[in-house]
């Protein structure tokens, strides 16, 4: 059966049915759908009931060799019946192209169904992620989902693809290729988070620049952006708008150079964690509040950055930084130092811990090189594990009175020979000194302690008495692995100790209680003295040791042991306690000595160390005998306390200021220093205009008050000093980056360098542009531009297309319309100069093949159709007939010998083309007949002349004319048996041929008197021709 007229049928789906049966096992039937277009087989299998195995088989007859999943039950249950299928998942947003990130929700109409999905185009299975909430789509992504529920057949798989059109620019306003980045819009709807770099890394650097603005909204967070980029060695520039750097460079194990951190950043959690090759930490801005894990395991950092006063959280901040030798200053305000310097094995010294800290757990654990502990301010309550495993620790400062928990605080401090005094208030010393092998004397245990488990575990060198206070209720393994016996001193009321200790290890208190040591006495007596003083201490108890403090803290066995006179040079409060083995500690004695001093000297080294646009920093050296300082700033006096530096802020740029310093003590103020005059810096210039070509960069800036001239730096070298506020660097290479900085110079001061402006020259203009214009089409071709990876096409002021090859075709243009075109080259991170504007106008061709054929009473005006035309206008004697839809027009109602002029134009709706040349045509004279024949080259045709009554045409002559180039005479009269080709009588036809030359035949009727009923009564003659061309052939006949 013929398929002519039938519609084409595409086979788009066929089913491959497989049936597998294993001995003793149930079998199941399934199908795979195959795409006939590309031959890919995609299994879509229902999850089967029972304990199913998955076998991979090759589908028989599958040309693509695709694999099908065969499930065979291991159970002995009977084959289950048909199951109800879970409803297919539905997406909240249909597939398509969107401008900007989208939040996609997936739902399933089956109650209790579990939705699995993928975003990489693969079919989801039981191992795919569970859908738990909206999926943020920022780049082209295919989401595939399926729903599952026990006891039901799995849903059909649903898939959608989203194309996200995102425009972005870097800090300089240059376009950024967003195919290299993943991002999402923040919940505020006003900013973006840059979540991943998806491009390649070449020579240790990323391709292009970091987007600073996405869809007109600033990038404020960079979370996980470069995490795991192991080939990255130099970090890219961070946009100034960023405030969060969370996990940004996490695990960049080869990163050598960190970026400059923008001033607005407040969160740097995990920012550089595990950057094991990083040599130097970046400067931390003054607004950062969290440094949690920021430099975790950065093993090559040897010097920590300055910690700004805004920081609150330093947990794990430098943990694992094994190259760090000194901790940074910890500002007041930090509250969390959990594990802050844990495992910093190279650390030998630590800064003081401020009173704001509340969590110090594990802060220095594993710092095996630390020899002395930092000063810890009052306020800490929990010191558990703070110095555990600090095996080199030999000295410890006083434990603050605020501490309550010392669990394992000094465990494994194997070099610690003397334990610090435990303040009253501590309740837990569980494991506090475990494995302190060098410890020989236990500290006095205050009456506040309730837990002493494992306190001296592993203290192999411990000897002497240990006093167990009545407050202790929990005792276990106190002296595990410790030399015994040790004298245990406790009262009979302490039932926990009575039950725990073996008799051979105990020396109990005598009946009536333990004797108390006599309190220390002071000589000379407390009072007011002139100049330095020597103080002696004594106790009435023979053999008692005296311990004292000079800082106001309570003395303990860990305080300074009195061995001779104490020298006091300033007002001091001395506190002392007397201790003797086997006796209770004495009461604490207190003596206050007021030492009157002379007036202090003028502080030396008074100078400026740093100036900025709005501040001046002053420093001075400590003056002998000074209790504090006063600073005079421009005539106003300010109390400096004991500080040795001051920053005068809020000043005007390029302003002069005068300062004096003096010391003071209880006796009064010393003399003023000589006046110090200092100037603030000029305001730093800021670029307010940047333009570029392919070989130049122009930069302009606003004038700075007080500036006489400006220095410009190009690529690190000062290249120009000038008094203008703009400059153009020329003779640069196309598509090349350069860095520019500016600073202002005045008579007495200068500004700092401006920020670094990283600018790329443009790619060159496209050259050799050629254009082809048609009625509905414009084609542009040009020469390939060096380094270009593509081109932007601008049409009428808007970028309308992007192409890779140096050619562009715009079709479907309205004929006869004018458009403006420009072209520029581009790369992934740069663009070129626009070409000169090209103005092109599409046109409607003048119709061709125009002919005007006269008839006896009309003229037939015809032509060939014009591409793009919707109609035609015909002008007859300058009268226009508009919008003719055909390619022929018949001018009717004409008389003989009428002459008319004709012209024609094409039109597209309201747009018209040019008029054709005017054509003048006359209708035939009276008695003239015209015959137009559609000829076929080599084929014969007849011209038949007939009349109602040929008798009426007696005595008349017939002249037939034709173009001998178009037709050839075959027979003068086909009414006879013989062919006639010459002038002669033709009696059989009753005519006489008077003239026969190529192009003209003349004949007449020979005898008009015809008998009635004659066969030839109406036919005058029939002449035969043969066409010599294809097309219209005109033959005329004039009767005279």
From TrEMBL:
It comes from the Bacteria. InterPro entries: E3_ligase_FN3/SPRY, FN3_dom, FN3_sf, GH29D-like_dom, Ig-like_fold, LRR_5, LRR_dom_sf. Residues 602-683 form the Fibronectin type-III domain. It holds the Pfam family CHB_HEX_C_1. This is Fibronectin type III domain protein. It comes from Ruminiclostridium hungatei (Clostridium hungatei).
């Amino acid at each position: 059966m013929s398929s002519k007229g039938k519609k084409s049928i595409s086979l788009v789906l066929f089913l491959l049915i497989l049936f597998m049966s294993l001995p003793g096992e149930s079998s199941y039937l399934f199908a795979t759908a195959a795409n006939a277009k590309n031959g890919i087989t995609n299994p879509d299998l229902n999850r089967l009931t029972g304990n199913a195995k998955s076998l991979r088989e090759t589908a028989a007859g599958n040309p693509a060799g695709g694999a099908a999943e065969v499930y065979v039950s291991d159970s002995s249950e009977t084959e289950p019946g048909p199951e109800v299928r879970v409803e297919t998942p539905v997406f909240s947003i249909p597939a398509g192209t969107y401008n900007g990130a989208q939040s996609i929700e997936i739902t399933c109409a089956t109650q209790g169904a579990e939705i699995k999905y993928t975003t990489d185009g693969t079919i989801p299975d039981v191992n795919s992620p569970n859908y738990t909430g909206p999926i943020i789509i920022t780049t082209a992504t295919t989401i595939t989902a399926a729903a599952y529920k026990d006891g039901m057949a799995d849903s059909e798989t649903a898939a959608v693809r989203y194309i996200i059109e995102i425009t972005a620019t870097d800090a300089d306003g240059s376009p950024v290729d967003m195919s290299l980045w993943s991002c999402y819009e923040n919940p505020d709807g006003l900013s973006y988070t840059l979540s991943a770099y998806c491009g390649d890394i070449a020579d240790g650097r990323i391709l292009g620049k970091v987007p600073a603005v996405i869809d007109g909204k600033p990038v404020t967070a960079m979370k996980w952006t470069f995490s795991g980029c192991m080939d990255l060695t130099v970090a890219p520039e961070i946009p100034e708008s960023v405030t969060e750097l969370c996990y940004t460079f996490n695990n960049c194990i080869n990163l050598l150079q960190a970026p400059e951190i923008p001033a607005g950043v407040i969160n740097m959690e995990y920012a550089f964690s595990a950057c094991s090759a990083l040599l130097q930490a970046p400067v931390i801005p003054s607004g950062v509040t969290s440094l949690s894990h920021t430099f975790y395991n950065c093993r090559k950092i040897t010097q920590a950055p300055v910690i700004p006063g805004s920081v609150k959280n330093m947990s794990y901040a430098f943990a694992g930084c094994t190259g760090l030798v000194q901790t940074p200053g910890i500002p007041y305000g930090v509250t969390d130092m959990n594990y802050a310097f844990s495992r910093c094995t190279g650390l030998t010294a630590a800064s003081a811990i401020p009173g704001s800290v509340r969590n110090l757990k594990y802060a220095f654990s594993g710092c095996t090189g630390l020899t002395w502990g930092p000063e810890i301010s009052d306020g800490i309550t929990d010191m558990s594990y703070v110095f555990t495993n600090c095996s080199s620790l030999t000295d410890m400062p006083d434990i603050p009175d605020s501490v309550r928990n010392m669990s394992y605080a000094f465990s494994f401090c194997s070099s610690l020979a003397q334990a610090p005094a435990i303040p009253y208030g501590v309740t837990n010393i569980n494991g506090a000194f475990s494995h302190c092998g060098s410890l020989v004397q236990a500290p006095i245990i205050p009456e506040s302690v309730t837990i002493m488990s494992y306190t001296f575990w592993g203290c192999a060198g411990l000897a002497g008495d240990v006093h167990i206070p009545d407050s202790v209720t929990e005792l276990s393994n106190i002296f595990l692995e410790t030399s015994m016996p040790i004298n245990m001193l406790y009262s009979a009321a302490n039932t926990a100790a009575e039950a725990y200790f073996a008799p051979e290890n105990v020396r109990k208190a005598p009946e009536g209680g333990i004797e108390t040591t006599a309190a220390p006495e002071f000589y000379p007596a407390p009072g007011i003295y002139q100049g330095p003083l020597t103080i002696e201490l004594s106790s009435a108890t023979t053999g008692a040791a005296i311990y004292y403090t000079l800082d106001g803290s309570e003395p303990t066995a860990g305080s300074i042991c009195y061995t001779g006179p104490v020298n006091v040079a300033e007002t001091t409060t001395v506190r002392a306690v007397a201790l003797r083995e086997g006796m209770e500690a004495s009461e604490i004695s207190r003596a206050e000595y007021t030492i009157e001093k002379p007036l202090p000297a003028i502080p030396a080294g008074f100078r400026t160390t740093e100036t900025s646009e709005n501040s001046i920093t002053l420093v001075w050296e400590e003056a002998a005998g000074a209790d504090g300082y006063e600073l005079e700033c421009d005539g106003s006096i300010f109390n400096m306390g004991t500080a040795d530096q001051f920053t005068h802020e809020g000043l005007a740029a390029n302003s002069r200021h005068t300062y004096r310093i003096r010391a003071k003590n209880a006796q009064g103020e010393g003399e003023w220093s000589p006046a110090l005059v200092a100037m603030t810096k000029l305001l730093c210039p800021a670029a307010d205009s940047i333009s570029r070509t392919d070989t130049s960069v122009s930069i302009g800036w606003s004038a700075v008050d007080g500036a006489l001239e400006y220095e410009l730096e190009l690529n690190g070298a000062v290249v120009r000093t000038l008094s203008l506020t703009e400059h153009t660097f020329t003779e640069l290479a196309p598509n090349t980056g350069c860095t520019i900085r500016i600073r202002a110079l005045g008579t007495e001061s200068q500004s700092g360098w401006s920020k670094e402006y990283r600018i790329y020259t443009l790619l060159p203009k496209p050259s050799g542009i050629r254009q082809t214009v048609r009625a509905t089409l414009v084609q542009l071709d040009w020469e390939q531009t060096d380094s270009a990876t593509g081109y932007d096409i601008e049409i009428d002021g808007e970028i309308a297309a992007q192409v890779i090859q140096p050619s562009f075709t715009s079709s479907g243009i309205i004929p006869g319309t004018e458009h403006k075109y420009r072209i520029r080259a581009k790369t992934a991170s740069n663009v070129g100069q626009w070409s000169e504007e090209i103005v092109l106008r599409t046109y409607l061709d003048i119709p061709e093949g125009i002919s005007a054929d006269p008839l006896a009473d009309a003229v037939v005006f015809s032509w060939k159709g014009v591409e793009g035309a919707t109609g035609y206008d015909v002008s007859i004697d300058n009268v226009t007939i508009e919008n003719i839809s055909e390619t022929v027009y018949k001018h009717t109602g004409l008389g003989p010998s009428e002459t008319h002029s004709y012209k024609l134009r094409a039109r597209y709706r309201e747009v018209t083309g040019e008029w054709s040349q005017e054509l003048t045509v006359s209708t035939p004279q009276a008695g003239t007949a015209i015959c137009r024949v559609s000829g076929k080259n080599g084929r014969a045709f007849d011209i038949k002349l007939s009349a109602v009554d040929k008798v009426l045409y007696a005595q008349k002559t017939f002249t037939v004319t034709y173009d001998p180039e178009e037709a050839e005479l075959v027979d003068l009269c086909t009414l006879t048996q013989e062919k006639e080709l010459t002038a002669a009588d033709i009696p059989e036809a009753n005519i006489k041929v008077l003239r026969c030359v190529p192009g003209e035949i003349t004949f007449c009727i020979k005898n008009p008197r015809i008998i009635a009923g004659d066969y030839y009564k109406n036919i005058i003659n029939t002449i035969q021709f043969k066409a010599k061309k294809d097309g219209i052939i005109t033959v005329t006949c004039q009767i005279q």
